[in-house]
Design brief:
By secondary structure, the protein is of the alpha/beta class. It folds into 2 domains: about 300 residues, Thiamin diphosphate (ThDP)-binding fold, Pyr/PP domains (Rossmann fold, 3-Layer(aba) Sandwich); about 30 residues. Helix content is about 45%, strand content about 10%. It has 12 helices and 7 strands. The chain has a 5-stranded parallel beta sheet with strand order 1-2-3-7-6, sandwiched between helices. A two-stranded antiparallel ribbon has the order 4-5. α8 links the parallel β6 and β7. α1 crosses α2. The longest helix has 26 residues. The radius of gyration is 21 Å and the shape is globular. The termini are far apart.
């Protein structure tokens, strides 16, 4: 298993990453963690309907996006929202989607947290498991056909490796040499199904061999190691060397979603063992050792993020719902007569209760 940054924050191989980028990577990890804490509280208070946390898996998403170009396309599962922040999308954009308000670019139509952002080349995630794997391979094939020096990277969990789409996507990409990074976040649990019941393979990365694709297993809580592995894979893909498979060993510290109770299927002692491997704490030690971070900067950054989150929540909560017309729009270029009638009936019904 590839590991660059040890649990105590030391490394024998200094990464070729500018200091300002190292700091940005850490700041985004902390922002994702703080957003998780707020999102779960809002759902428990009944202020939003659903939330998908990524606590414990911050290093995978931020390490990957930091190693790619902004022109590259990301196909997420549903636990990678830090990518859009790294690419400059404001918190307000995402929090509006949680509330499904009039400013939500998805117009309140999607499950909270399943948000795509075109400006960040961040594709809409899907609730069905593994569908994005085939899509990423197909888009990459199109990019290569047009001779664009872009790649796709697709996230999925250990559970998705049992899906039909995993096989289809891997086989397609390998045969046609598409510029795709297949990034498996092995967080040990597919909701309540442990890895031991998911596969008999010693490593998920071993599955890549069956498709004639290079692959490796890395420490997914080591953000520097994630960056290095993704950067190497991306460089090869841009040269026309085809796809690459990365299995990142990490752990979902929280519930699968706010609809899940992990205490029913795993022991607290297991969670605490992984909590000691927290990727944020490990990276902070590294930055402190380099003189790039300290308690004062930590306090200041957390206060800034929490203030921005609270202000965004207040604004999102005060914003009304999308116009009632949006129930019917964006399906047909010109609305057919029967939908126009239904829309008018709905408006009349609404007026009776206003």
């Amino acid at each position: 298993m590839r590991q660059v940054l040890t649990p105590d924050g030391n490394t024998s191989k200094e990464p070729k990453i500018p200091n300002k980028d190292l700091v940005k990577m850490y700041e985004m990890m902390v922002q994702v963690r703080l957003l998780d804490e707020k999102g779960i509280r809002l759902q428990r208070q009944g202020r939003i309907g659903f939330y998908v946390p990524s606590t414990g898996q911050e290093a995978t998403q931020i390490g990957l996006v930091a190693a790619l170009k902004d022109s590259d396309w990301i196909f997420p599962s549903y636990r990678e929202i830090g990518i859009v922040f790294y690419r400059g999308i404001p918190l307000q954009h995402i929090i509006d989607q949680w509330f499904g308000n009039a400013n939500d670019t998805h117009k309140g139509r999607r499950l909270s947290c399943l948000v795509g952002v075109r400006e960040a080349n961040f594709v809409n995630p899907s609730a069905p498991i593994g569908t994005q794997i085939v899509q990423a391979a197909g888009v990459a094939y199109g990019m290569a056909h047009k001779k664009e020096k872009k790649i796709t990277a697709v996230f999925f969990g250990d559970g998705a490796t049992s899906s039909n789409d995993f096989h289809s996507g891997m086989n397609f990409a390998s045969v046609l040499k598409t510029p795709t990074i297949f990034f498996c976040q092995n967080n040990q649990w597919a909701i309540s199904v442990p890895l031991s019941r998911q596969t008999a393979s010693e490593k998920i990365a071993d599955k890549a061999k069956g498709y004639g694709m290079p692959g490796e297993q890395i420490d997914g809580n080591d953000i520097i190691g994630v960056f290095a592995a993704v950067k190497e894979a991306a460089d090869k893909a841009r040269k026309g060397e085809g796809p690459y498979f990365i299995e990142a060993i990490t752990y979902r510290l929280g519930p699968h979603t706010t609809s899940d109770d992990p205490k029913k299927y795993r022991e607290d002692s297991e969670v605490e063992q992984w909590r000691a491997k927290d990727p944020i704490l490990r990276f902070r030690k590294f930055l402190e050792n380099k003189g790039l971070w300290d308690d004062k900067k930590e306090k200041t950054w957390r206060e800034e993020v929490l203030k921005e989150i609270d202000e965004a929540v207040d604004k999102a909560e005060a914003t009304g719902p999308p116009e009632i017309d949006t129930i019917f729009t964006d399906v047909y270029k010109e609305m057919p007569w029967h939908l126009k009638e239904q829309l008018e009936d709905l408006k009349q019904f609404k007026r009776r209760y206003e």
